[in-house]
Amino acid sequence: MISKANIKSVKSLHQKKIRDAHNQFIVEGEKMVLEAIRWKSDFLVALYHTSDFPTEEIDATKINLIAISDHELKQISGLQTPNKALAVFDKWPLETVNIPFYIALDGVQDPGNMGTILRLADWFGVEEIICSMNTVDCFNPKVVQATMGAIFRIQVRYVDLKSHLLALKMPVYGALLEGENMYKSSLKPEGILILGNEGNGISEEIKQLIDYPISIPRFGEAESLNVSTAGAILLSEFFRGTI
């Protein structure tokens, strides 16, 4: 059973300002909750679950388990069809990394795109994504769902993007329509790949820092590509030469 105060507290974590204030976020659904516990169990605050959640798969002695009804789960869930569990996690501290290749996001707003890009980073082994401050919150529940677990393995760092890029002193690649055909470029995963906002692309301020503008050649009539689709194609080309 869950108290009214707890219902209010958990529901409030659907708002960014509350997530930031409490340094917490939520994970929903049986598969995602089990994945989160697998990778970040030390940061689990509470696990609210219905009777059909497989509690035998976790070490209940180390976890604050709270059994609730389907109706109560629906009260705290942001999903149209809640699935057995919702967990509250503390955000974990970022580690200092020194890696050869980063993805940088300049104003990406759609949670689905953000989640997919995190999955791509996880697939290609890119350990950290750098984000401008106006990029969607990676702990937005819709982003967390879309990552399919990648959020628990890939670091996301929010920064003043211009200053951070200058400080890294690495080659900067930018996805631009007017860039060089990527198939004619010698791409390798060393540097920073910038992906821009869904509607406006990379901001003018950040464009000035791009050393190598690159593009995906078009063969049909489509006006543009979804940013996460473009990211997938570009990352595949960056890493192709490492095989």
Name the overall outline: elongated
How many structural domains?
2
By helix and strand content, what is the structural category?
alpha/beta
What is the assigned CATH homologous superfamily of the largest domain? SPOUT methyltransferase, trefoil knot domain
Bin the strand percentage: 15-25%
In the CATH classification, which architecture of the largest domain applies?
Answer: 3-Layer(aba) Sandwich
* Beta strands, count: 10
**What is the helical fraction, as a range of percent?**
25-40%
The level 1 CATH classification of the largest domain is: Alpha Beta
Report on the structure:
- This protein has 243 residues and is an alpha/beta fold.
- It folds into 2 domains: 4-90, 60s Ribosomal Protein L30, Chain: A (2-Layer Sandwich), CATH 3.30.1330; 101-240, 3-Layer(aba) Sandwich (Alpha/beta knot).
- It is built from 9 helices and 10 strands.
- It has helices at 4-12, 16-22, 30-40, 70-76, 111-124, 141-147, 161-168, 204-207, 227-240; strands spanning 24-28, 44-49, 65-67, 85-90, 101-106, 128-132, 155-159, 172-181, 191-196, 212-215.
- The strands form 2 sheets. The protein has a 6-stranded parallel β-sheet. Strands 1-4-2-3 form a 4-stranded mixed β-sheet.
- α5 packs parallel to α6 (141-147) and α5 (111-124) runs parallel beside α9.
- It is elongated.
- The model has no long low-confidence stretch (mean pLDDT 94).
